Amino acid sequence: MTEFIDESPKLDFVRQIVAEDCKSGKWGGRVATRFPPEPNGYLHIGHAKSICLNYGIAAEFGGVCNLRFDDTNPEKEEQEYVDSIIADVAWLAGQQPDRIFFSSDYFQQMYDWAIALIKKGRAYVCDLSADEVRQTRGTLTQPGTPSPYRNRSIEENLDLFTRMKNGEFPDGLRTLRAKIDMAHPNLNMRDPIMYRILHAAHHRSGNKWCVYPMYDWAHGLEDSIEKITHSICTLEFENHRPLYDWFLDELEIYHPRQIEFARLNLTYTVMSKRKLLRLVQEKIVNGWDDPRMPTLCGLRRRGYCPQAIRNFCKVIGVNKFNSTVDLALLEHCLRDELNKTSPRVMAVLNPLKVVITNYPADKVEYMDAVNNPEDASAGVRKTPFSRELYIEQEDFMEEPVKNFFRLAPGREVRLRYAYFIKYENVVKDAAGKVVELHCTYDPATRGGDSPDGRKVKATLHWVSAKHAIKSEVRLYDNLFTKENPEDVPEGQDFTINLNPDSLKILENCFMEPCLANAGHLDRFQFERLGYFCVDPDSKKDRLVFNKTVGLKDTWAKQQQKQQG
Ligand code: ATP
Ligand code: MG
User: What is the reported pTM?
Assistant: First the structure.
């Protein structure tokens, strides 16, 4: 996964630890990381940070990174999610992940280790309900109350746990708990639950098991089985590290090092899978891959390229403090990439017909248009010009306001790659709405330059009406109106901050004919308008485009301002 290699000379704190360990030979020079998603939703941009970090470290230090499905919770997990996660990692990495593991494959080993802890007197079967366990846990200032079942004999515990596994008890009747310390200052150490009874079919192990391991118990064991060297997780797990260490030490098995980093938060975005699932289930968006979603498949459909996301992860870096990153920075990284790689074409989203009255009715000229000014190798294409054209409605004002330099009565403007045209008159419908413009062109200005040095103040994009492809364009705005969508009054939830105008559909847009053969997810810059890509909803005779991002770089602007 060499795409993830970060060549920046300064190592972040996680890479520093790995580098030191490699130097000291702590793991025999080995580096093994893992990316452990729970298959209960689609991956989002936050996961990308973790993927870039874990796969990046493995690639840079000559190690390996496992894609591990943390599928210990049968209720919310589905094959659909497993498939999407593999596809999204492959997309982001530019290659198929080759090391795929499932926590559920370790259920037997975990069970055996639970038996070992019981035999050691370090785990017991408890008959308190989940609620009672919570209530007797104590608080930060008060110790917990030991369970009345805490001192069951090893024999009784072995018997009860075996019967739990054999399905003799209903859901929730008993749990297996670690016997640590009910007065421990860290609440996670107060006899945490290791197993619960759950008669539910698992997407891989079927009905084989009716006891399922809890996250804290399972995770370190999974890392240990896979001989992970650095188990990198988000900051919330810092408080769980003593428990992670305790289980591995008590079992006296291979013991990776857990390192915590700050999770990614983005403005105008919710990232929790539970909330994203709600958006999908309540049909607030059109599925996980809706181009407004922060999911990787949503970003892909929106027109993001993996390189832009990897660059973004590089730019934000890795640290120990939770913060919120400006969405404008992600878009800046995207634009940077698209600018280098996207062919330019002309497209008119809100068409206004222009008739060039002094241009012959059946004449067609093919104008040279540059495909990408940033990339000479992209070459030049021929774009047809004829008597009837479309321009943007907003490029004409019958009564121009101050600072409007585009087409208006008495004005001359340049049509990009074509000619200067001059306003003659306007045609209106019965309601007084402008429906057509009549202009004349100057044949001496072919290519867009005037031989007499005459200047115009505006250059407009256009398409030839009879050659244009009619298509649909979907414009997007942020899904939420608030920087922090979770900032809501008591008793309300994040959905009150949804942006009602996040999707706008334009049905009658006109594109240059060179787009006729564009394929799904092909990306373009529509001159003066922004970056767009072909949506998979496109049909052979009806292309649909998504607006990926506009041209204006608010992030770069802000930076310039700050630097004075
Ligand atoms: P949620 O709380 O929404 O369910 P999660 O963190 O539980 O998300 P997992 O599928 O368990 O989701 O995440 C897999 C990995 O991705 C974890 O190692 C986690 O640390 C990492 N991860 C998840 N969200 C972020 C984020 N916002 N920033 C960085 N890493 C993240
Ligand atoms: Mg999780």
Answer: 0.94
